[in-house]
Design goal:
The complex is a heterodimer. Chain A is mainly alpha-helical. In chain A, about 75% of the residues lie in helices and about 0% in strands. Chain A has a single domain, classed as MetI-like (MetI-like fold, Orthogonal Bundle), CATH 1.10.3720. The longest helix of chain A is centred in the last third of the chain and has 38 residues. Chain B is globular, with a radius of gyration of 22 Å.
């Protein structure tokens, strides 16, 4: 029966095969859906948000969510202390989170991949120097760095992204270097050497394709981590300026009203939780999908 | 080597050495060397199968890899078809590499999991500009067929194959460039016994068909007996005996060869074979014994064995043995260093 299922899989179109992979793993499906929702709201925020996120209306400040006594569907998730629409702010907040996560990972992954490749492939003294610097970076407490940068350069999205990008790069350097060392020792790289393939071919044909899987998986987990930490920084007032709607900022603002208007802090909190959860599930799923053993040739 | 003396050797290995430094401490000081291959010399003639045997860790794989320059030798010379492999650079080296290929022991790690096997074979043909476009696909599929696989297998990934099939792919890849020398580094030891004979037969068929020369590295003496024409026995990085297969199996001269060959299981229970059991373990190659490396375990060890390193010398029957029993040190005429060492002890 198992063999039948595999045979049928071969007959299907590529699109059907992708669908099959998505539905085979229920947790992965949840991850993809959650991430899809966040991505969608970040991209189309102006079209789906019912109000402008900064539009204040003090007469309806701290209005309860729609399903409670005294709420209305004009503001489905209620309003915050300044009467701004919670739903719209959460939708716009996803932009900050995803931007930090995406670009932070992009910077740290590209940096880490290049340095890790060089360290692992060249080896020797170059390897020692690169790994030394990477370990030095790992030793810097990022929170301290954030406080210093926020104090000196001011609070901005770019600063947060840069700090996350640089402080996380050593992790990618280590993973890349380890993988490169492992792959270099494998028979297929040796046999490529033994036929006289040039280093460029070995790196691009053999090492990189085998690196991408583990790196992308780590990248997803890291992105989830960065979104989480960005919210933490926002809560401490060290991330984006207070005017920008971000989940961390909203959480911080809701803190003082948590006793009587808990929804102001609860909804951004839930947004953070579900985004992180979604990305972690997505990471698990990616690890399986990117494994060539799961792939069937057509 | 009587029958092959008039022919020009295809591969001449002379005093090949490969030492791995042992690094200790924070500053990675080199505190010693593991002499994985120590002063190994042998010739391989066109069309023959030369086997290197020995227990694990004796340096036979390292010998094969240093010959192909997959690892650089510490010393010595490798001449392939009249050309010094270690003197060749850049493009010249690529031309040489095309002519000598390796088949690895582990077919599971020898193939890139993200490349179809067709792509893997096409890649090496492309590196050497052997064909383009449709011709490339055609050639790759034909090589697969030669090695007992199907044409449509070209579009499959390595994980879809069994160990034996993978080894066929690895052999096909080695064969794709029409090499004249193939270093087979324990090509069957990772395989099931039932598959081993298939791969051995494949190698033999290919040897006949393409006029290949093999350097066959193995610890399986029965397989070597089946495959090889000449055999080199290695112990602790040194070649202790080189002889034709028949001479070696019928009358091993070196005490280590004798012990090694007595370990081959005999299928006839009525025929009891005298098994030579060696005492102790193989000494560490990082700290090899003085004199003959085998003297710590040799049942015939003499005083001279503890101090003088026996060299691989030709016997009257044309074989090569490194043992003081066969070549008493008194015969080392004019070798002052040897004499001095003896006096010192």
């Amino acid at each position: 029966m198992r063999i039948d299922a595999l045979d049928q899989e071969n007959v299907r179109s590529p699109f059907q095969r992708v669908l099959r992979i998505v539905f085979r793993d229920k947790a992965g499906l949840v991850g993809v859906l959650l991430f899809g929702i966040v991505l969608f709201s970040a991209i189309f925020a102006p079209y789906i948000a019912p109000h402008h996120p900064l539009e204040q209306n003090l007469r309806i400040s701290r209005q309860v969510p729609a399903w409670q006594e005294g709420g209305d569907w004009e503001h489905p998730l209620g309003t915050d202390n300044l009467g701004r629409d919670m739903l719209s702010r959460i939708i716009y907040g996803s932009r900050v989170s995803l931007t930090v996560g995406f670009f932070g990972v992009l910077i740290s992954m590209s940096l880490g991949m290049i340095l890790g490749l060089v360290a692992g492939y060249v080896g020797g003294r170059t390897d020692n120097i690169i790994m030394g610097i990477a370990n030095l970076f790992l030793a810097i407490p990022y929170l301290l760095l954030v406080v210093v940068v926020a104090a000196v350069l001011g609070r901005s999205l770019i600063n947060v992204i840069m700090i996350f990008g640089f402080t996380n790069a050593p992790l990618f350097v280590r993973i890349t270097r380890g993988e490169v060392l492992r792959i270099r020792k494998s028979g297929y790289v040796e046999s490529a050497t033994s036929i006289g393939a040039r280093p460029g071919r070995i790196i691009f044909q053999h090492i990189l394709p085998n690196l991408i899987g583990p790196l992308l998986t780590v990248a997803t987990f890291e992105m989830s981590g960065m979104i989480f930490y960005e919210a933490g920084l926002g809560f401490l007032g060290l991330s984006v300026p207070p005017g920008v709607p971000s989940w961390g900022n909203m959480l911080a603002a809701g803190r003082q009203y948590i006793q009587f208007s808990p929804w102001i802090a609860a909804f951004p909190g839930l947004a953070i939780v579900f985004t992180s959860l979604g990305m972690n599930l997505l990471g698990d799923w990616l690890r399986d999908v990117l494994d060539p053993k799961m792939r069937r040739s057509a | 080597m009587s029958g092959t003396a008039e022919r020009q050797p295809m591969l001449q290995v002379t005093n090949l050495k490969k030492y791995f430094p042992i690094k200790t401490g924070v500053f990675s000081r080199t505190t010693g060397y593991v002499k994985a291959v120590d002063d190994v010399s042998f010739d391989i003639y066109p069309g023959e199968t030369f086997a290197l045997v020995g227990e694990s860790g004796c340096g036979k794989s390292t010998t094969g890899r240093t010959i192909l320059r997959l690892q650089n030798a510490t010393g010595g010379q490798v001449i392939f078809k009249g050309e010094d492999v270690y003197a060749a650079t850049g493009d010249r080296m690529r031309v040489l590499r095309k002519d000598m290929q390796i088949v690895f022991q582990d077919p599971y790690s020898a193939l890139n999991p993200r490349m179809t096997i067709g792509a893997a074979i096409r890649e090496i043909m492309r590196v050497h500009g052997m064909a383009t476009g449709n011709e490339l696909h055609e050639k790759a599929e034909r090589v697969l067929e030669t090695c007992g696989l199907q044409r449509h297998h070209a579009s499959r990934y390595p994980h879809e194959f069994s160990g034996g099939q993978r080894q066929r792919v690895v052999i096909a890849r080695a064969l794709a460039l029409n090499p004249s020398l193939i270093v087979a580094d324990e090509p069957i030891s990772a395989l099931d016994v039932s598959i081993q004979s298939q791969i051995i037969n494949l190698l033999e068929d290919l040897q006949d068909e393409f006029d290949l020369t093999f350097l066959f590295i193995s610890h399986d003496l029965s397989v070597v007996k089946h495959m090889a024409e000449r055999v080199g026995v290695m112990y602790l990085g040194k070649l202790v005996e080189v002889a034709g297969k028949r001479e070696l199996y019928e009358n091993p001269l070196h005490p280590y060869s004798q012990a090694l060959l007595s370990a081959i299981p005999v299928s006839d229970p009525a025929r009891r074979q005298e098994r030579i059991i060696l005492k102790g373990d193989v000494p560490s190659p990082a700290n090899p014994p003085s004199g003959c490396p085998f003297h710590t375990r040799c049942p015939y060890a003499m005083d001279v064995c503890r101090s003088v390193v026996p060299r691989l010398r030709r016997t009257d029957s044309g074989r090569h043995v490194a043992c003081h029993l066969i070549h008493p040190p008194e015969q080392h005429n004019g070798d002052l260093s040897t004499v001095e060492t003896r006096i010192a002890h």
